[in-house]
Every structure is written in structure tokens, then in C-alpha cells.
Fold these 3 entries.
Entry 1:
Amino acid sequence: MKALLVTIGSLGDLHPFIAIGLALQAQGHDVLLAVPADHVDKVHGTGLAAEAILPGFATICARLGIDAAEAAHRVLTQRSFMIESVILPALADSTIALDALAGDADVIVGSMYALAAGIVAEKRGLPLVALNLQPMAMLSGCDPPVAPESAMMAHAPAGPIGRRWNAGLLTMLRLAVRARYGGAVARVRTAHGLRPHRATPMFDPLPAQVATLCCYSPLLATVQPDAPPGTEAIGFPLFDSEHGFSAPLDPALTAFLDRGPPPIVFTLGSFVVHAPGDFYDEAIAATRKLGRRAVLLTGESGLRDDAGDVMRMGYVPHSRLFGRAAAVVHHGGIGTIGQAMRAQACRSWSSPSSAISSTMVRELPGWGLGPRSVRQRFAKRRRKRPSHRW
């Protein structure tokens, strides 16, 4: 069998696909990853095959005339920015590129944002397996996301009235998204000989879709009754190598860890880190006020700065570091949560930018992964958030 794995986005979107690709390859299957241009080398470093189907992050920023910090800020604060400025402008070209790779594929596996995957799978009569990387993306009326946009929803509805209310609100959301973006997707479908489809982009199951795999622990969020047929929570497909191959901890970091008590680790993942605000300054101040040590993962390539009680690193595989930490303060990314659970130690969770499900709000503290920090207390001088348009 040849599996064509398709994803776009940050390392948080790429790493689960690498983990799944490596598992498939170990079972004797052929695997090809279709990814942004800036992820190809990393995939090659794992021994998997990869081809670029759309530009990398730096190229997208250059096209938009903004830097990485501004791009991250817009993604985090303007819910329409990702689809309007990144996904849809690249859809036609990425679909052509993906179609050229799919000639000998037996199955296509795609993320919710990889709209080309559904189009090419339907065109070629291939089964599509959709990967959902975070509970909130399921848009369940039974377990709705906790976010400013969902303030009107009944969280953790106990009866049919709350679930029906949520379902009605989600229907209106789907109609609005379909009216706004359905035409752009339909034009690409037509160019590939497909009829328009009433599925809402990114939200509804697609004609070729045979299964939905939720890539997180069912301990955090179970499959809800309103999930698409064939949905299963499979656990975290974990991978976090910096360059794609296994490497030991940096000797300087190892020395820092060895010479004192376990530090508090502060991280904003691979994308939020582009727009950190005062997160790291506040982290240092809080750590020193507590009389503790800290490791800051700042995303700066090649950074290695040991200030005695604070160690700054650009990137460290979470799987190698979290087990030696006293606590981890982070952005609430699902991959980071998975690594924190895997480390099996007490964790603290900061979520200045993420939106999660109601079930996760209830369950995370019980797993030593909470409580959730208050945004205004942790980053007092973050830029004012513009109103959302959805």
C-alpha cells in the first residue's frame, strides 16, 4: 500500500504526520508526505519521502508583506486570516501539485486544513482518512470549544435543550463559512472535473472521507455522538526531533539540568513563539520571585544562553526535557499537552492563545495539567486583540 499524507501548518501539524508515516513505513508500506516547502528537509531527515505542494512560512510572509511575528499575531487574533490569506490563495496550485503526486497512491490521509486532499481523493476515487489534531476542531455541540467565539454556546450541556441550542449555533456557523468560502473551493473542484458539494470547508465530512482519526488521548476528549461516522480517538502520534533524526540533549542544557533542582520549563510551541509578547520576560520574573530555575524555549535558532538560574534554548525535544522539569508552562497546544502527559509528572498549563473543549477544561486538572492561567495576569502588555469576524 502507498499512503499519501498531506498536511500544512506549523510543526504541531507536521509532527503527528511524521509519527504516522514512520509507523506505516515500519509495517512495510510506502509513504509520501506532501508538505510545505520548509518542512521537506525535516521529513527527509526521518528517512521518509516528501514533496512540497505549497510555499513555506517565510515565502507566505513575504507575499503578504509582513514579518513572522505579525503573521503569527494575525493567525492568533483573526480567525479568518488563516483561510483567507494562507489556505485559499494556495489551494489551486497545491491541488495541482498534490494531484501530480497521487497517481500511484492507494489512500490519502489529510489534515482539516489540507483542502486539496479531499479534492484529489474524490477526483481519483481514493479513500480519504481525515486526521483531526485537536478536540475543538470537531465542533461538537455535545462538547463545544471554549473560546470567545463560542461564548453563546452551552458548555458541557447536560440535556437535549443545551445540545440542540449548540447544534443550531453550529449550523449557523457552517452556513456562514460555506457562504463565505464555499465558492472559492467550488471553483477548484470544478477545475478538476468535480461538481460543487454542499460540505462546509474544514468542518463537514467530504465525499471521499471514510474515517476520521482524532490524534489525541480519549482521556482528554472522547468521541461525541455528533461526530462523523467512523470517528475514532487513537491517542497522540508523538514525534519531536528538531531536525528529523534522533540526537542527545545539548551538553550545555544537560549541564544546567544536572547542577540544580528541576527547572520550570516555559514554551510557546513552534508557532505562537513567533509572537510571544511579554511571555518570557514575565516567566523570568515569576521564576526568580519563586526562587526557582527555568528553561525557556524561545524558538530562536541556535540559541544557547545560560544565565545561571535561567537557560534559554531555541528548541529542545519535549520528550527529552519534560521528564526533568518541575513544571511546564505553555500555550495549550495539543502536542505539548501530549508530551506533558507522557512525561507523567506534575504540570502547569498556561493558555494565552488556545481554544479547547469543555471536556478538556474539566479533565486537564485531574491529570496534573492545570489549572489554566489567566491571560491578563500573565501578559499584561500584549497587543489589543481585534474583534473576530466569524
Note: Confidence is low (pLDDT under 50) at residues 374-390.
Entry 2:
Amino acid sequence: MKGITRERPKIDRIASHGLHDAALARLASIVRAADCGRPQDAPEASGLLAISCGLSLDFSDDHEMLAHGRVLYDALHAQRARVPVTQVPGPTAE
């Protein structure tokens, strides 16, 4: 697809099609950070990347892996839709 690069993954194209869904835009930033190797851009990115890598190791069938992974993305979207980004707790200082 035209316009999809490592710096502009498919999730950005989905989120930019006039859906006006703030939770989807927040989810896009998490996916972009995980996909582009910039976990510092979204606190959830490291966890998303770890779980995604684990799914790819657990399932040899891509369709089965996607079915299980969809639950993860749906859950992240639901969480982003219900909690304002300013109220999500960040990492604690040690």
C-alpha cells in the first residue's frame, strides 16, 4: 500500500481515515512505538511488542495468531476509550 513505511505503519493509515476516534489514535501511537522500535514513545509499547513476539512463537498458523492477537488490540482500544490519557498511570520512580 502506498504510504506505508516503518515510520508510518498501516495503523496510522487506518486511524487517519476520518474515523475521529481518539482511542484509535492513541492505539495507533502505541502500535507505532512498538513497530518502529521506539518504546519510549508509549509506555505500553514494550508490553505490546513482547506479547506480539510471543504470539508469533506460539502459533505457526497466521490466521490463528491474528485471531488471538485481535483480542489484545481490542482490549487496548477499549482501555484507551475509557480512560483519559492524562489519568493513565506512568512508570513509578524507584
Note: Residues 1-5 have pLDDT under 50 and may be disordered.
Entry 3:
Amino acid sequence: MRTFTKALVAASAAGLLTFSGASAYASDQTDFDNYWLSCQSGNNFKFKLYYNSNNKGAYADFGYAVGNFDSVYTGQGYKPMKFCNTGAAGSLQNVKNNAASAHNAHTSYGACVYYNSWFNGAKDSLPPATPVPTSKNLVNTYNDNASFQWC
């Protein structure tokens, strides 16, 4: 076992090992998908943040983790994630520090909204949607939210 461990360390140090697993953090591609598909009907995303309490006002859909709502890759640089232009309160406002409620329709994963960027600080959690989707007014991150991930 020691020989294997030494060989593994040596190969790693020489740059011979690569890992193809997905990053735990949002990537440019998932940012891009969230940014451009968030407001498209039929997008199949399972998590929504709402501008107002009780799932009212403008919304933004998410299918992937977002490490920083204020800096999302668009394919042409980085911009803030915005609520959809629904004509309701909050339309086209930045999502960061403006969400008051959330809805999780994913049956396998819970959803966590964080106070700070990159999934840090206080959080609000919504359990998986079994047997029905879950909604709640945000408490710990009410109008103070900076990131989201499945948890």
C-alpha cells in the first residue's frame, strides 16, 4: 500500500493524473444555461426564487447552482442574474439581495439559498418535493441572498 501511495503522490506531482469529475461549484456553462433559460417557458428547471413573499411577484428559475447571483456568465462576460420580466413587482430587478420566497419542485434534491456568495453564511433550506413541491418565505436570507445550490 505504501508503494501505491508513493506512486500516486509522484504521479500527481508530475501532473500525470487528471480528474474529470464535475466541479462542486457553478461553471460557466451552467451559469450560461441559468442566465439564458431562466425565463424561458418549458425550461424544466425545478427551483424558483420570487421577488415577494408567498411566491408572488417576478420569479427566476434555476436548474443549476449559482455561486454568485451578482456575477453570472452570459457568454459575453459576467452580469447579474435578474428576475424575469413578467410585469409583476420585481421584474428585471437583480436577484441578489432581492428574493423573499422560494419554491422547490425537485423530487430528489433539497434546495439551499445562502446569505453569502459561494454557498456560505446563513441559509434557508427547502426539502425535496416529495410528495409535493415545497414553498416557503425566506427567513435567514430574506432580501439578503447571494447564492443557491442543491443540497
Note: The two ends are 35 Å apart (CA to CA).
